[in-house]
Amino acid sequence: MEHEKHKHTLKRYFFTGILITAPVAITLFLALELFKWVDSSVIRFIPAKYNPETYLPYGLPGLGVLLLLLFLVMVGMLTTNIMGRWLMGIGQRMIEKMPIISGVYSALKKLFETLLGQGSTSAFRKAVLVEYPRKGVWTVAFLTAPVYEGFYDLLPDDMVTVFVPTTPNPTSGFMLYIPKKEVKELDMRVDDAFKMVVSTGIVTPSKRIKKK
Fold this sequence. Notes:
The structure is a single chain. By secondary structure, this protein is of the alpha+beta class. It is built from 5 helices and 5 strands; from the N terminus they run H-H-H-H-E-E-E-E-E-H. It has helices spanning 2-43, 63-78, 82-96, 101-116, 190-198, and strands at residues 126-131, 138-143, 159-165, 173-179, 184-185. Strands 4-3-2-1-5 form a 5-stranded antiparallel sheet. Helix 1 packs across helix 2. It starts with a helix and ends in a 14-residue tail after the last helix.
């Protein structure tokens, strides 16, 4: 009996150890792999005679990442002055005249402006619950931008735009126009709601949903 008790305790400790270390280990592994991929990808674009690793008996981990950060900062500095904006304008007008590519560029530009634009703390305004894909079945969604003005005459009054993400990959999903009265706002931060979606509901915030 005592043996079985110790066996059960060791088994519990083992699985608890996995629960604690696995997320940390996987996160660090993915971060390291991303770091190495960016580093090696940037290094390839450096001519051999300008690459310090050409003259050293060992590599310089992080050199590519550092150069990429410096490049992005320089681009940001150049495009904030008049000449930089003028050159960017010429480049954008050239891209906008290319079929197909112009549509992809425009969509990506708007996406990054929404996600990273100054003064915008989040691409999503609020975490909500909506009945989807049918009545009686609820899912986590996010309030996004106001309804497009061109749809005002086509849609009923008091509609809102929501994004219903897929699980466990919230970067894809469905944009829906739903009556505001059918949307239940959650007393939950957007990032906490994202954690729920990514973890398929396993990770939930400690604060309960506010009952109305």
